Structure to design on (293 residues):
């Protein structure tokens, strides 16, 4: 039963989320028409960034600067996530389509 | 009407434009008339057109030593496979089983001719020729989508599929041109 509470509690926080002072926020970046929407996004350290692919073709969200992360191939309907741990700028691209570019601007919070 | 029909001339124009592009590496005007293919034949043509680019990419992967060309070819295989799956799903939904036909065969003949031209080439010469072909192919597809397919397609689901495929084709063309410009 304790285990169940442990699961429910963060979900409740998540559901109430979006609050500026919550433990973290979740940001959604939609991929459609071979582009990231929004292409540039302000987030905070510890936030969760989620990419959802709506295109027929697969995409990735892959760190192209000093931060290395890779969502792997996201098929249509798939999502990938990244939680930045340091403030700064994190450019990323789609490794399948390098013309697709995005930027996370990560602030301290 | 028993079921949705897929036989818009638009769908048939695509492979015709493909075939012409593969032969002449130039985009011909949209054909005024198209052969009267059945739905199963049209489905076969669509799958064939995607498979041709997949097979060209597979061949390129065995031949090129250029990392950029290898990555481009991998993307072509991934994307055209995904588009094919979507086209097959739509065909299945509309109750169509692909059937071989003259247009599919002419596409395959054109692709075989293109392969023959690439066959003797190696190194940088191969990379240039393969990327030139990919530029012509995707330009032809894009023109067909814009000028023939989307304007003339009545089937709503087919139109949506075309509209969803268009940005991928445009990106392929952009990637191909950028890569070609970097080749020595
Ligand atoms: Cu992509």
């Amino acid at each position: 039963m304790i285990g169940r509470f442990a699961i429910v509690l963060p979900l409740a926080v998540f559901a109430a989320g979006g609050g500026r002072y919550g433990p973290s926020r979740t940001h959604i970046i939609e991929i459609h028409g071979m582009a990231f929407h929004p292409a540039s996004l302000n987030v905070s350290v510890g936030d969760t960034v989620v990419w959802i692919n709506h295109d027929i073709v697969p995409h990735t969200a892959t760190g192209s600067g000093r931060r290395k992360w890779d969502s792997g191939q996201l098929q249509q309907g798939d999502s990938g996530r990244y939680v930045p741990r340091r403030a700064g700028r994190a450019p990323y691209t789609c490794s399948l389509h390098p013309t697709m570019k995005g930027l996370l601007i990560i602030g301290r919070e | 009407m028993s079921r949705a029909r897929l036989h818009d001339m638009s769908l048939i124009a695509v492979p015709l434009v493909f075939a012409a592009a593969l032969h002449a590496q130039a985009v011909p005007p949209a054909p005024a008339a198209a052969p009267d293919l059945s739905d199963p034949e049209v489905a076969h043509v669509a799958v064939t057109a995607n498979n041709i680019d997949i097979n060209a990419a597979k061949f390129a992967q065995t031949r090129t030593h250029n990392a950029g060309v290898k990555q481009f070819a991998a993307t072509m295989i991934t994307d055209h496979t995904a588009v094919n799956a979507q086209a097959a799903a739509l065909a299945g939904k509309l109750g169509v089983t692909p059937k071989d036909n003259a247009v599919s065969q002419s596409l395959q003949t054109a692709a075989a001719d293109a392969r023959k031209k690439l066959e003797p080439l190696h190194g940088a010469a191969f990379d240039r020729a393969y990327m030139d072909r990919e530029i012509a192919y995707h330009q032809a597809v894009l023109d067909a989508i814009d000028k023939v397919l989307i304007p003339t397609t009545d089937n709503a689901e087919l139109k949506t599929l075309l509209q969803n495929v268009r940005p991928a084709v445009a990106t392929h063309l952009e990637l191909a041109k950028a890569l070609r410009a970097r080749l020595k």
Notes: Chain A touches chain B through 15 residues (CB under 8 Å). Residues 2-16 of chain A form the longest helix (15 residues). Residues A 59, 94, 96-97, 100 surround copper (II) ion (CB under 6 Å).
